[in-house]
Amino acid sequence: TLRTVYEAALAVPHAEVSTLWEEYRAHVQSSCQPELAAKFIANMESTAATALKMLQPRMTAWQGLDTMSLPIPPTPPPLPAGSSSSAGSAAGGGVASTSVTGTAANEAVHAIERQAAVWRRILAWELANSMRRDKDALVKHMRYIFNACLAHLRFFPEVWYDALVFESDMARMRGVPVASSPHFQALVQGARALFPTCVALNLAIADMLELSDDTVGAASVYRSLLGALHRVADTRPALRKRYAAAQPQHVSTGSSARTDAPAAGIAASGPEGVDAPAPESDATVAHTFAVLADSDDAHDTLFLSPDEQSSAALAAAIDALPLASARSVASIHSASVPSDSDAASCAAAVSRVLISYVRFTRRTGGMLPARHAFKQARASPYVTGAVFRAAAQSEYFSNRALPVARNVLELGRQRFPHDMDFLLSAIDFLMLVDDATNVRAFLERTLADLPVRDSRPVWDRYIHMEMVCMPGGGSLSAVAVLERRRARAG
Question: Domain for residue 119, yes or no?
Fold first, then answer.
């Protein structure tokens, strides 16, 4: 009826609330009995008063919103090489054409960033529930607001994250698994399809699924993210060659100085050792992780323990996983000659995900699946020393397996003999948990592989250990010997 339409309109703060209130009073007084009209007016008076009270804050929050803005990425896409400039050159104005195109792109980016700031203000105001909506009404309203926001800011991963957090919180308040919420699953599918290589967003999704006990879904997110990241890197051979050339993979020339265990101990299999990777061709290594997102068989053989492989129920669940598509990744990350910072950024992203995945596997699957995950992580051409350091810490603190932790660090030292950040962190870790003999052996092997000009920080750590970390206060003669060696080394 017309009365219910008025009542719905009076519940929303807008500039015509006062006019609608007068029209509503006149309507109910003319169409209802006096007693009933008085009751309707009394019931709606507080609602209209609240709408008037919230009018100014709401207008402030929504001020500046452009409902006609189109969704564009927050950074301008790179201009195709020669496209605008060559077209402009044919008309006699190549430089001017390129400049105009770049200016227009930057203006569009600035406009969408201004709209993003407006939407953040709107979301904060609406989430505060200043209108005092009940829980069901608030959930329905916020879903509408998030959908409207994503229609304009679909290329902003933080908006997807906020929507996912809201759905996760609402599911937790209702006491239902978030993985069973169709709204949450729709957001997950949309976010993963649009941002297959966004590390922060995908890791957040995996955490939400793990918190809701959907470990199979979380594992699928990790595998898809790893596959997408490697697929992007593999589409740019220059990046892969440049980073692979900077990461030597040879057995240390100083390994003969080892006193705590033979070199073969690193390749020992089973709970007390870490399998050394067999030599693999470039094609094999390049596509190892791309398989993770596209092959159901890889889910069973690459990361699962033998006990898990024998579980028919788990195998069936994994076979039924919906796999996210990442075929548009190459177009999102357009190709140009990558710089050194590109290579470092790619390696850091892959390593961050690998560390998170190994820790996830340790939490949800146990020791053996985590070791399988780390073994496969070493096959990545973009792995960094941080992965080895994290694996060693996990072996010591989670499994209480100091020999395995020592072997992991030795394997990392052989692969990254010139990575000073990894070497110093490994030395600091061993000084805290290992005996002096093994730490000295590790230091000697490290010094044997380092160029003299880069060895000063390791010498400083060596002397610090002999002065501070030895039982009984250490030996001054040993410190003097090391200081003479450091001086000779320059």
Answer: no
pTM confidence score: 0.72
Q: Is residue 251 part of a domain?
A: yes
Looking at the structure, tell me whether residues 245 and 362 fall in a common domain: yes
Domain that holds residue 344: 218-417
pLDDT 10s per residue in the chain (490 long)? 899 999 899 888 888 888 999 999 999 999 889 899 999 999 999 888 888 888 888 888 888 888 888 888 877 555 444 444 434 444 444 444 445 456 777 787 888 888 999 999 999 999 998 888 888 989 999 999 999 999 999 999 999 999 999 999 999 888 888 888 899 999 999 999 999 999 999 999 999 999 999 999 999 999 999 999 988 887 766 556 655 555 544 433 333 333 333 322 223 333 334 443 333 333 333 333 333 333 333 333 333 333 333 333 333 332 333 333 222 322 223 323 344 456 677 888 999 999 999 999 999 999 999 999 999 999 898 899 999 999 999 999 999 999 999 999 999 999 999 999 999 999 999 999 988 889 999 999 999 999 988 899 999 999 999 888 887 777 888 889 989 999 988 7
Whether 275 is covered by a domain: the verdict is yes
Eight-class DSSP state of 235: T
Residues 356 and 470 in one domain: no
